[in-house]
Amino acid sequence: AAAAAAAARGADVDKLDGLGGAAGLPANVHLLTLMRAEEGDPSRLIVRLAHNFQVDEDQQLSQPARVDLAQLLSAAYRIRGVTELSLTANRRKADMPKPRAWSAE
Question: What is the pTM of this model?
């Protein structure tokens, strides 16, 4: 899943030292990207998270994971809003066409 978090303070992503405070990420989630959005004001971030396990790959770690972005980014940012984006972060998920149903013959 991809998410864009708008930060209230203009903290510099390059100087971000210590994500997560006490919470951090669950063992089955990986932080792929934490960067400033290329467009707009510098307080907008692109945060990409990935689940490390496929369905049924591991009895516990394959379960859905929850990430509290407010806790994850609390050291340097205050989240004002979140928008789920495409993997390439160029389109809002809500604006994307629905996936097609493919038949295997």
Answer: 0.64
